[in-house]
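your task:
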Amino acid sequence: MEWSLLPPATEEMMVQTSVVKGRFMGDPSHEYEHTELQKVNEGDKVFEEEVVVRIKEETRLVSIIDQIDRAVAILPRGALFKTPFGPTHVNRTFEGSLSS
């Protein structure tokens, strides 16, 4: 089996894959089909047209991995502090390492 690096997730990928539900098929080349209504302007008239969007399983996998990674991200205690007015700042006296 040959493994390759997955591309980084983009906001466009997240929006596209949010409509796909269910289990993964196990085939990275598998394509899910989703029908969307898009407005098309032709002169003075506006039409709604059905467009079939194809989403690869690899793209869905990248999106899901990114969502899981963001959901379980943690920071060490003391690395950030919250001011009384609401914003959160990096603690300059923190001696650990922060990686993003």
Notes: Residues 11-74 form one domain. Strands lie at 31-42, 45-56, 80-82, 88-90. The first strand starts at residue 31 and ends at 42.
